[in-house]
Amino acid sequence: MSDGGAPTPEKGKLALYWAASCGGCEIAVLGIDDKVLKVAEAFDIVLWPCVMDGKVRDIEKMPDKSIDLCLFNGAIRTSEQEYMAQLLRRKSKVLVAFGSCAAEGCIPALANMNTREEIFQTAYHDTPSTDNPDGVRPQIETEVPEGTLHLPLFYDTVKTLGQSVEVDYYLPGCPPEPDRIWDALVAILTGQLPAPGSVIGATTTVCDTCPRTRNEKKIKEFKRTWEIIPDPDTCLLEQGVVCCGIATRAGCGALCPTVGSPCIGCYGPNEGVVDFGARMMTALASVIDSQDPDEIDRIIQEGIPDPIGSFYRFGLANSLLRRKALAHNGDGRVAEPA
Amino acid sequence: MNRISIDPITRLEGHGKIDIFLNDDGDVANAYLQVPELRGFERFCIGRQAEDMPNITDRICGVCPEAHHMASTKALDALFHVDPPPTAKKLRELFYSIFYATDHTTHFYALAGPDFVMGPDAPVAERNILGVIKKVGMDIAGKVLKMRHDGHHLIKMIGGRPVHPNWGLPGGVSRGITEEQREEIERLGRDAVEFAKFSIQLFNDIVLGNPAYVDLIKNDAFVHNTYNMGTVDADNHVNFYDGMIRVVGPDGKEHAKYHAKDYREYVAEHVEPWSYLKFPYLKKIGWKGFTDGIGSGIYKATPLSRLNAADGMATPLAQAEYERMYEVLGGKPVNHTLATHWARLIELLYATEHWIELATDPEITGENFRVLPTQTPNEGVGCVEAPRGTLTHHYWTDERGILTRVNLIVGTTNNNAAINMSVKKAAQGLITKNKVVTEGLLNTIEMGFRAYDPCMACATHALPGQMPLEVTIRAPDGTVVERLSKNLS
């Protein structure tokens, strides 16, 4: 923050930006409470559109590598977002993919299960409260009586930040917990950083930090969360609830299992896990108490009817699957809206 | 035709883009608020397990995930035909009151505060929360930070996480609270009531005590005579969590009062080619274009709308402030957009009072906080008042509870048409022939927009534009006459 006066030369420069995201990462940053003031002491905040009256134009004018740290949250779905990712990459010494959307695609990337055409058809035609007798759809260019209005192109595929530009560090979580954000800021300020390209965070799993007691897991059926009131002290997976703690990176403090809900994997895959869903399915297959292939198949079909939503809810864009196959051109975009 | 673009609009949750067109006389011909993205939840949620929806749809908005979590959980109650036990309903409402108090605090101090505390003409570098802290001092800033800290601490304690809770289930919640937790909730709630009273006093001193601000609130450029929507309890008092949806006309008379499950009889959504965000309107009146008055189906769903749509507040301190606001502003309904900030503070006070009522309810620590559904799921509607407007989730599933169809009408979307009109009217009132368009003037237009606390993340989530706040005036042939970015900080 310049405090309205001349910039203090010894301060570092910090940018915070959001692309395709929900705003929860901004709230998580504010969640470091009065430490925000310490951040303001350590850095001139040069960009933070959610909170400050901002000036992207001034960023464009800055010399390359003149921003010391950029925390970039949100996935990439359009040319504008890609432009901002490229701009901030160029201007920043250290670029952090902040939060699940930037790191692995998160919920917005569930849209990779559909095409833009399907999404438009649902939003502007099929939804029951939509009243659209003329079949109007948003257009990139619209002539209105006073002139021409433009909308950005809506892509078919959601990308992670790392699929658009080179990322120095990843901070997982949907959103990252405020304590972890502060840990990362301290690490950056003191130069205590891991190798470039690393995740700043734990290398253990949510299971390792979960207070529930674990015994041998032998499962005859998986329970959907609405089908069971689980025992408050025993491992949820042992009780048949699909809990993702076994594959998920620690960092949250096992918050969800602590309030009786299964881990849903929002901190992303733990170190060494290549594909979160594959890891989960392997882990779950190993706890099924059966040797009969038909019975195993039935247990999985009945208990886990939506593997995409259960295991790729946060990481579809960054997974080996990445997206549902497109019938047409494979470059992640389609030409013009219909 | 000349054009002024405000892109991006700052200090709102998500981005939008405003284009203002000037005619050859230099007057405002029209203005458009464009929302430049759609995320497609209604499509990509198909195929998901219904019970996952409170943990998927909360990612529509990280600023008000509690609202989506709660509307979704209520939709699951209806979908699975299960009635949560009283302890569960009270816990949800307690959680929701704490959320409201926290969210309204964030908006008033961090997003709207800079306009009122620093003033619309303050330098850009100071017009933010850090500028506000510097001006009001660490003592007041400390109160704000404590309120936010306490709120998020309790939301995490009850719902599991401070952002994106994981707690709501069809038939109840995943965990109750202990007596020890209840005591902390009550203790921090009493601080919150004091904070709300303090905030109202601050508004009195800084805003109502300043004739320039009062003139701004009452300025005709910020008035829109539309219908107003809000949820009311059995006494027609404002309720955030449950009740009937009531709509009153510009004349203050009741237009409709209906159960959320019947929303399709009362609300429809219009599509324009220049925005990804749809425009809801009152179906029985019809879409008549961007025009206000009793003959147009455009409505607002904001804190001020909720107060207009109700007969009063359910708690004593909030009721007293409710009466005072209408007395000062000349009776109901009040359609001065900037009075929405005052209404937000009255709601803050109500939320904290209700927080105490629920925290001291003997049933709140009950162990019966959940019942398991026994019926086959098929269809369900869940509705709450999100801080930014009436929020509706509607799900259809197969017999396994796998989603086959989803419809969402979220808080800010309700206000899409009204916000467009507000931007146009503010621009028409403030930009006239030969008037020099300054950055401060554009910010004043943004104030008309910001009062709605529009959450574009909620509405669809919007995109950043390629340009900063910049004014380009073009001649009718498209050539650039002047760039006013030099006037910007």
How would you describe what is shown here?
The complex is a heterodimer of chains A (338) and B (489). In chain A, 29% of the residues lie in helices and 12% in strands. Chain A contains twelve helices and eight strands. Chain A has helices at 24-30, 35-42, 56-61, 79-91, 99-104, 116-126, 178-189, 206-209, 255-258, 276-287, 293-303, 307-311; strands at residues 12-18, 43-47, 67-73, 92-98, 141-144, 147-150, 169-171, 198-199. The longest helix of chain A has 13 residues, at 79-91. Among the domains of chain B are: 2-37 and 434-487, no CATH class; 83-220 and 336-372, Cytochrome-c3 Hydrogenase, chain B. In chain B, 42% of the residues lie in helices and 16% in strands. Chain B has helices at 41-44, 53-56, 65-79, 86-118, 129-136, 138-159, 179-208, 211-218, 263-266, 303-309, 316-329, 340-359, 411-414, 416-430, 439-450, 456-459; strands at residues 2-6, 17-22, 28-34, 168-169, 172-173, 227-232, 244-248, 254-258, 267-270, 279-282, 299-300, 379-386, 389-397, 403-409, 472-474, 480-483. In chain B, the strands form six sheets. A four-stranded mixed sheet of chain B has the order 8-7-6-11, covered by helices on one side. A three-stranded antiparallel sheet of chain B has the order 1-2-3, covered by helices on one side. The chains are: A alpha/beta (338), B alpha+beta (489). Chains A and B meet through helix 1, helix 3, helix 4, helix 6 and helix 9 of A and strand 3, helix 1, helix 4, helix 5 and helix 6 of B.
| Major sheet description of chain A | 6 strands, parallel
Low-confidence sequence ranges of chain A: 1-8, 329-338
**Radius of gyration over C-alpha positions of chain B, nearest whole angstrom:** 22 Å
Computed Rg of chain A: 22 Å
Number of strands of chain B: 16
N-end to C-end Cα span of chain B: 26 Å
Please indicate the percent range of residues of chain B in DSSP E strands (runs of 2 or more): 15-25%
Q: Mind telling me which CATH architecture of the largest domain in chain A this is?
A: 3-Layer(aba) Sandwich
Give the name of the CATH architecture of the domain at 83-220 and 336-372 in chain B: Orthogonal Bundle
Low-confidence stretches of chain B: 457-476, 478-489
Quickly name the level 1 CATH class of the largest domain in chain A: Alpha Beta
Q: From the structure provided, what is the oligomeric state, counting identical versus distinct chains?
A: heterodimer
Structural domain count of chain A: 2
Quote the beta fraction of chain A: 5-15%
Strand order of the largest sheet of chain B: 8-7-6-11
